[in-house]
Amino acid sequence: MTQDVELARRPLPVIIALSAAVSCFLVWLIYFKGRVAEPAWVGALPACNALFNSLSAICLVCGYVQIRRGNRLVHMRFMLSATVFSTLFLASYITYHFFHGDTHFPGHGWIRPVYFFILISHIGLSIVALPLILATLWYALRSQFRFHRRVARWTFPVWLYVSVTGVLVFAILRAYTT
Fold first, then answer.
1. Domains and CATH numbers, the chain
2. 33: left (phi over 0), alpha (psi -120 to 50) or beta
3. How far is the C-alpha of 86 from the C-alpha of 65, rounded, in Å?
């Protein structure tokens, strides 16, 4: 095995362990943690989450366009912005679910299976997205662009899907709960 490949694999166990810990924590937080009093401002967090996901998706697309044009510096700025917006989303999401717990979907008819398909694929791919995002960032920040490109080819569509479907989940929930 070449030294480059060995160096590239070094952070993967840590990235995978961290991603698994975050996923387990979120499952516990949403489904098993006891209820706490919910302050009034918590109700605004789902809209903030949708905004952060929207901004992340916009930055992802703009970053993709810039790298296709060969503009690495602007690409980097957009991708770091997407990371910041996704991090803000995660912090807001954790805060919301700390107070609110699980949100039940009251819709019936054709929308119910559509909603759950979007939600389940969103959740499943968000679990996949986290280690991909961390690995892609790691390789970029370490200037290991050969590995960065390999992982980014998978990261981009998964991350974009998760960002867009996060907004869809919010919109469908809002339409059926207000």
1. 3-177 (1.20.120)
2. beta
3. 19
CA atoms within 13 A on the CB side of 40: 0
116, 105 contact by CB (below 8 A): yes
Q: Could you identify the residue written with the tokens 């098993």?
A: 32
pLDDT along the chain (178 residues), means of 10: 57 82 84 80 94 98 97 97 97 90 89 96 94 94 93 97 98 90
Residue ranges of alpha helices (H) inside 69-100 are 72-100
Closest CA to 49 of 102, 96, 82, 100: 96
Cβ-Cβ contacts under 8 Å for 32 (sequence gap 6 or more): none
Q: How many CB atoms lie within 10 A of CB 2?
A: 7
